[in-house]
Amino acid sequence: MTELHPLKEDIKIGFDYSHDNKLIIEDPGFSEFVEYLFNSEMKLGKIEAGITYEKLANYNVFIIGVPTLGSEYTTNEIEDILKYVRDGGSILAIYDKGGDLEVKSNLNEITKHFGIIFNTDQLFDNEQYSIENSRPIINDFKSHFITREIHQIIHSGGCTITLDKSVEDEDIDVKAIAFSSVDSAWHRVYRENGEWFDEPANNIPIIAVSHYGLGKVAAIGNLSLFSTFHDAYGIYAADNFKLITNIISWLLNKAYSKESKLTLPIFITIPIEQDLFYWIKGILEEGKWSSIQETVNHALKALKINSKIRENDD
Q1: Does any domain span residue 292?
Q2: pTM for this entry
Q3: Residue 108 belongs to what domain range?
Q4: Do the domain assignments include residue 145?
Q5: Are 67 and 19 in contact (CB under 8 A)?
């Protein structure tokens, strides 16, 4: 099995541009998400005119942000995406209300191999919501790296997820980490004939993660969470932004062997005071350091040495 080892210096995030995707770098509605990636010193790229393994291999994380307009993934594209993840790549799959049926695409033909199926529905909640019941507040989480320090998120106009545990083996593991409320949630389920029906949606998954071979997959059926559309349900609502940073960090954190656990960096997101951030950016522009990562690691090493000196003095 070929292994895709993350580059130690350049972290590259690829976006699917081959299927009329809604989440694209140039859309001002997602400017804060894109700015977060830039400020984290990640390099962003696009995969256009079809997905291939060779194109995917350039990226640490590949984001599929809601394919639309009946643009389906081909058999070859699906096979190359699966190979990319098996060999150590990471996928962030994002959908919205109605799933495949709403946009006439076939993202589930990819994610089903990871044990994840986006439902053709929309989630509502009659008691726990932001502004209106189509923007449910989610506060039921399973302990996971992604859900660290997460208390509430807003799942606005989104779909739910079904897990297929039958795909699990020694190389595949899938789990849900966020759920709809138990008593007040319901969903509107869409059918291919255009009809829909409402039913309770008690404790249904809305975020799922999967280990597939050497790679990782995170899936969420809510595009608005990444947007700047509204403070009540967009990227800065509740803990939405923290969730996003946790997802990206988790997708980047991969070790392929005992040796790599000792050498590969751990990616985390921490808030930096504004005056310190702009000061260090100025230092970087002067060419005294190569990256914020380098300065933070240098400061931590100095702190570690200083702590050991103090311990010896004591």
Answers
A1: yes
A2: 0.81
A3: 11-262
A4: yes
A5: yes
